Recover the amino acids of this structure.
């Protein structure tokens, strides 16, 4: 197992380097002077453009720029946002925790809803409830996240007035958590997609688990259906959830962009959308980099936990 | 634009235009500062209350992010200057009087400059203003700025080669009298409005390279003691300090600029607490929340009545609209998508908003004012597109006339801007009503929308006009291009704004009426700017029309003399437009004694660019807040004039 | 966005059938299999029905119901803006679904936007599938450093959430329909690559592959003529989901403001514009378009699910 872990960590490091290279290329897919013109605007004259290029090293050879960029990343410097006049890392540092809170709460909520739903579908398989839930999960899958969010706002915030129309605007994580009413709609919106996928997975995985040999053994030994379901099938079906979470992490982090945009939630997703509309490429590339690193870390942790949790893998 | 939830689309549209006009966010950041032509007067019979807190909505996604008045171009914006720094650090000369863009002597820190010696010498006298730390605002404070400008001009927003400080032989001070010795004569209006306008006096407390120091050489030396060596290579210009005073300026600038990079320290750093304006900063955060309180030592004519002035940041139009609806903001912008009744225009500049949005009408009145800008997009007279014929065509006045005659600005303003707009018909802004545009105003619009006239212009010049199709040249002698040339053009504009899309699409179908086929593409802001550069020919010079959507905002070059735009080889003459008469007329306004009359009329007739309508923002003002009007064309705000009534 | 392929890790190329059975999947057997799927699975039939209807609606509809969807000037000056369905103000066409903020007829606009959404969906899925299959098959077959290198690239790209990558690419290469197809395709090829690689890894040790090698067949011949046809099942299933995903991704981009440029539009951009009017009660600018997206994506998911169930039953013994 240690060998596997070491290999996984090394692999992650290679991937991280790849991400650094990718983000550098993306942020330098520029025509000459493009960064300066984007920042300085239409009034820029030749001297100001040259000064800008000099200040931000755009006049150096590309390899040297990559070296400066990599050194910067190692020091936690992801560049500067021209439009906001702040360093990308300080912007991300202030917004990332809020996104993690949103993603975290959504995922936990999704699991708390999806697992029982999946079990319910197995228990009442091929009945009307099962078909209805399957249909609902299809629709949940197919609904674009932004449409769902806007509809939730329309129905529950504007028409019924049960919740505020936008997410908490507090500057700190504690401030955000102090306004739970405003968190309801964003959390639900982000969780729906995960719920749809997880409950379907739970359903098929549990059904599969129920055909395994150890289930027959348990039944033969006189275990009640409930015990069979919960103590045996469920436990075995849950283990891959960890890997599942790792695999869906990119989708949830990416989905947060849309949810944060719709609800004006002051996290990294909204930062990304604003950067996109403002054509703020350094900031955009910075958030992409952080999102990628978060995903790599998430996958690594998921893989490690999976190895720890599943005895079959541990001894193979 | 979105009026509930979060409006990404809305902000993108406004933001693109705002990004295009870094200096002034015409739409989103009007925040109570657009000039009020056609708005009602400012006085109210209700008694003025002392105190109270007024809340201003900042422009969407435009929070202040620079505090040091010696600002690089990328941070030179309405939000930073007119809505933030100017409240604390007064510029030497204040521009914007009532609704006009004129010099405002009562708010300036010096007397109006007197020009002698054939326009080569300017003298002014400093008024007795005080800094909040007890220092007096002296002539030396101005020289401090000028010294720094000499060394760090490449880091100054308003610098253009050959202009201030390059055009000065010396600046001398004697007591509170300041004398500018120019190298060559200059037109006095031009020099005051475009060159001296760039100066903000700085306190000796800033003349340091670390906290608590005594004033260094930079601020105490004379202008002639600061010597630099300038080198221009193909890679660019470098300015190297030579004398000790110059090196001191480089060090002081470096220190102050690095302090200005620490946004979260703005409200605690004692440097920035040294103010000569009516307000000082008590709270600032990186999201854009700003709180200011009156500066008790302010020496200006009108002292603030408010107890507090607060600016609130918004990242979405819908959030700002909802803040207005909830009464959390006293002065804000009505997002274009929430405008429920069209504005009407009486005369040229009489912009009268329609009924207010019903959710706001109980507590707010809506106003609209013009901004000091022109909107246009350039074309490339050296274009090698269309087989090398585009450039030739664009050089022909008749073609430009036909093209402009198909732009229906009044209809576009009514339909796309919901009436909130003014047209651009010449190089000098006609609105708000001002002296500079008197001649242009008399001329009227020489190219009013007239499709049949456009067609006849083309026909008269040898074109076989195919409405809805592509016209073809049938007589090479009259066309100016070979027979068989088709009227095919490419126009790239900045995408992402539904308003801009509507504007361009509508014009495209309009041009098609005369068989002028314009192929529209969209690009990012920087793609368009990078493409709209002067070129002299060859395969890389194919661009024909480029539109970044923002035109030109006249700040800090408040005198719209066109030397940056339409002069041969000018720094922002994207399309390489060149006309000796134009050069002569412009020179008359910058160096000679002419006013803008002849230049403006010539520019209106010659069409050096394609004029476009300007979108005007709608400003909401709390009915209980007075003193905000008239909205100023230069987007200055004067919260020291604001007060609440019961 | 559907994450179905990734959500089913056990389906990433499960145990391949024994050598003999693999051959049966190619050619006529495949078509019959697919048809049997639709015969047995009602949802799949419904799905195909919806897809076919949508294609006809979007591409043939404008032939019968002709409206102005490109001339903004004309719309602004001759049509009422934000008119409700069946409004008497609609004089040029009856506007059964009302008009939008420029004056374009909504029903016609759904057809028009649908054309782009469907074209981009199919084209991007096509590119993603072709690219993914090639990379996956090459990587899985030739193993060694080729595999390591290609899979590291896939890892790197997969670790960036798709929407982030899409946004960055769309901002840098300003959107046009062609660019969007390429950009979405470029971000979507990773999953089919992984899937096909997995299947290839197990297929390459099958007896029939060894047999071809013994007979002197070269690597590329094996890949093209033997490996890929045997992974067709997985490919088709994945491709179906890819179309649904591409439509959703394009819609998301359109919502942010990075969608197709004017005068063209897609369903996502239409909703983005439509929500501006929600506060004023212009429901017809949101719901019909939203319904269209959901229907089409659900339909593709029905079909993909049915196909997957069919292939997986044959792949796995219960």
């Amino acid at each position: 197992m240690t060998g596997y872990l070491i290999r996984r960590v090394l692999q992650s490091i290679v991937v991280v380097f790849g991400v650094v290279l990718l983000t550098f290329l993306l942020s330098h897919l520029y025509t000459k002077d493009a960064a300066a013109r984007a920042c300085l605007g239409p009034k820029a004259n030749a001297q100001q453009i040259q000064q800008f290029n000099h200040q931000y090293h755009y006049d150096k050879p590309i390899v040297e720029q990559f070296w400066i960029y990599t050194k910067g990343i190692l020091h936690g410097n992801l560049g500067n946002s021209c439009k906001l006049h702040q360093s990308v890392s300080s912007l991300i540092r202030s917004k990332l925790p809020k996104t993690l809170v949103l993603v975290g709460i959504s995922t936990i909520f999704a699991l708390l809803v999806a697992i029982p739903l999946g079990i319910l579908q197995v228990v009442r398989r091929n009945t009307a409830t099962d078909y209805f839930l399957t249909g609902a999960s299809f629709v949940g899958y197919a609904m674009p996240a932004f449409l769902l969010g806007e509809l939730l706002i329309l129905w529950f915030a504007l028409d019924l007035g049960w919740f505020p129309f936008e997410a908490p605007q507090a500057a700190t994580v504690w401030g955000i958590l102090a306004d739970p009413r405003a968190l309801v709609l964003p959390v639900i919106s982000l969780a729906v997609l995960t719920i749809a996928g997880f409950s379907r997975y739970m359903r098929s995985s549990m059904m599969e688990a129920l055909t395994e040999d150890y289930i027959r053994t348990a039944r033969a030994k006189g275990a009640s259906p409930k015990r069979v379901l919960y103590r045996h099938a469920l436990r075995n079906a849950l283990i891959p959830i960890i890997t599942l979470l790792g695999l869906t992490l990119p989708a949830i982090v990416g989905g947060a962009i849309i949810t944060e945009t719709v609800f004006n939630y002051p996290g990294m997703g909204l930062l990304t959308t604003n950067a996109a509309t403002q054509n703020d490429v350094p900031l955009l590339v910075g958030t992409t980099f952080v999102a990628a690193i978060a995903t790599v870390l998430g996958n690594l942790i998921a893989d490690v936990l999976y190895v720890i949790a599943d005895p079959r893998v541990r001894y193979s | 634009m979105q009026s509930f939830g979060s409006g990404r689309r809305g902000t993108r549209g406004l933001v693109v235009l705002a990004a295009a006009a870094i200096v002034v966010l015409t739409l989103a950041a009007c925040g109570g500062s657009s000039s009020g032509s056609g708005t009602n007067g400012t006085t109210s019979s209700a008694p003025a209350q002392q105190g109270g807190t007024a809340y201003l909505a900042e422009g969407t996604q435009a929070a202040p992010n620079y505090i040091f008045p010696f600002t690089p171009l990328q941070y030179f914006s309405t939000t930073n200057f007119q809505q933030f720094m100017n409240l604390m650090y007064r510029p030497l000369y204040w521009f914007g009087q009532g609704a006009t863009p004129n010099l405002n002597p009562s708010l300036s820190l010096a007397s109006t400059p007197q020009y002698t010696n054939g326009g080569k010498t300017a003298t002014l006298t400093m008024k007795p203003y005080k800094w909040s730390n007890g220092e007096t605002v002296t002539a030396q404070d101005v020289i401090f700025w000028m010294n720094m400008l000499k060394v760090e001009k490449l880091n100054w927003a308003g610098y253009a080669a050959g202009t201030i400080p390059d055009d000065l032989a010396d600046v001398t001070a004697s007591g509170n009298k300041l004398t500018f010795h120019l190298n060559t004569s200059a037109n006095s209006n031009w020099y005051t409005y475009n060159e001296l306008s760039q100066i903000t006096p700085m306190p000796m407390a800033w003349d340091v390279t670390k906290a608590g120091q005594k004033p260094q050489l930079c601020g105490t030396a004379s202008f002639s003691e600061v010597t630099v060596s300038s080198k221009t290579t193909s890679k660019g210009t470098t300015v190297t300090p030579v004398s000790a005073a110059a090196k001191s300026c480089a060090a002081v600038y470096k220190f102050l600029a690095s302090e200005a990079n620490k946004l979260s320290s703005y409200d605690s750093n004692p440097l920035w607490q040294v103010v000569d304006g009516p307000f000082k900063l008590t709270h600032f955060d990186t999201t854009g929340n700003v709180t200011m309180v009156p500066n008790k030592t302010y020496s200006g004519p009108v002292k603030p009545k408010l107890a507090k002035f607060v600016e609130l940041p918004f990242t979405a139009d819908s959030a700002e609209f909802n803040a207005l609806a909830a009464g959390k903001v006293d002065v804000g912008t009505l997002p274009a998508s929430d405008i429920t009744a069209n504005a009407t225009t009486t005369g040229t500049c009489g912009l009268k908003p329609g009924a207010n949005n019903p959710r706001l009408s109980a507590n707010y009145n809506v106003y609209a004012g013009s901004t000091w800008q022109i909107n246009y997009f350039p074309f490339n007279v050296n274009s090698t597109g269309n087989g090398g014929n585009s450039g030739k065509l664009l050089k022909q006045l008749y073609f430009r006339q036909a093209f402009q005659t198909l732009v229906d600005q009044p209809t576009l303003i009514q339909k796309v801007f919901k009436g909130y707009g003014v047209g651009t018909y010449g190089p000098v802004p006609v609105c708000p009503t001002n002296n500079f545009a008197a001649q242009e105003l008399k001329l009227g619009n020489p190219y009013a929308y007239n499709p049949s006239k456009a067609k006849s212009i083309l026909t008269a010049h040898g074109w076989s006009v195919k409405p809805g199709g592509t016209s073809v040249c049938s007589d090479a002698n009259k066309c100016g291009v070979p027979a068989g040339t088709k009227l095919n053009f490419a126009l790239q504009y900045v995408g992402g704004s539904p308003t801009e899309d509507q504007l361009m699409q509508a014009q495209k179908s309009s041009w098609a009426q005369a068989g002028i086929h314009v192929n529209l593409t969209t690009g990012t802001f920087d793609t368009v700017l990078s493409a709209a550069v002067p070129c002299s020919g060859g395969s890389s010079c194919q661009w024909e029309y480029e539109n970044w959507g923002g035109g030109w905002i006249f700040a800090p070059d408040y005198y719209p003399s066109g030397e940056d735009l339409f002069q041969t080889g000018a720094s922002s003459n994207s399309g390489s437009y060149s006309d000796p008469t134009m050069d002569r007329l412009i020179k008359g306004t910058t160096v000679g004694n002419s006013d803008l009359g002849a230049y403006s009329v010539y520019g209106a007739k010659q069409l050096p660019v394609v004029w476009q309508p300007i979108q005007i923002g709608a400003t909401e003002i709390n009915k209980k807040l007075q003193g905000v009007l008239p909205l100023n064309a230069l987007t200055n705000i004067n919260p020291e004039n604001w007060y609440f009534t019961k | 966005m559907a994450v179905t392929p990734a959500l089913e890790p056990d389906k990433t190329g499960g145990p391949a059938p024994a050598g003999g059975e693999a051959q049966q999947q190619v050619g006529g057997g495949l078509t019959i299999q697919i048809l049997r799927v639709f015969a047995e699975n009602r949802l799949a039939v419904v799905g195909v029905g919806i897809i076919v209807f949508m294609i006809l609606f979007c591409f043939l509809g404008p032939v019968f119901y002709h409206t102005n969807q490109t001339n903004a000037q004309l719309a602004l000056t001759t049509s009422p803006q934000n008119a409700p369905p069946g409004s008497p103000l609609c004089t040029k066409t009856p506007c059964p679904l009302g008009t939008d903020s420029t004056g374009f007829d909504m029903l016609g606009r759904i057809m028009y936007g649908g054309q782009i959404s469907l074209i981009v969906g199919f084209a991007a899925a096509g590119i993603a599938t072709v690219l993914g299959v090639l990379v996956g098959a090459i990587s899985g077959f030739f193993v060694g450093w080729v595999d390591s290198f290609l899979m590291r690239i896939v890892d790197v790209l997969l670790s960036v959430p798709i929407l982030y990558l899409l946004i960055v690419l769309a901002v840098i290469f300003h959107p046009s329909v062609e660019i969007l197809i390429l950009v979405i395709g470029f971000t979507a090829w990773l999953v089919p690559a992984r899937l096909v690689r997995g299947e290839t890894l197990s297929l390459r040790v099958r007896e029939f592959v060894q047999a071809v090698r013994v007979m002197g067949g070269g690597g590329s011949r094996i890949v093209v003529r033997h490996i890929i046809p045997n992974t067709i099942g997985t490919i088709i299933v994945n491709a179906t989901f890819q179309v649904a995903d591409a439509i959703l991704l394009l819609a998301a981009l359109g919502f942010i403001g990075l969608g197709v440029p004017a005068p063209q539009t897609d369903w996502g951009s239409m909703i983005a514009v439509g929500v501006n009017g929600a506060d004023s009660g212009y429901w017809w600018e949101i719901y019909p378009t939203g319904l269209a997206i959901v229907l089409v994506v659900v339909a593709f998911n029905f079909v993909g699910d049915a196909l997957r169930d069919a292939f997986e039953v044959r792949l796995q013994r219960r």
Residues 106-142 of chain C form the longest helix (37 residues).
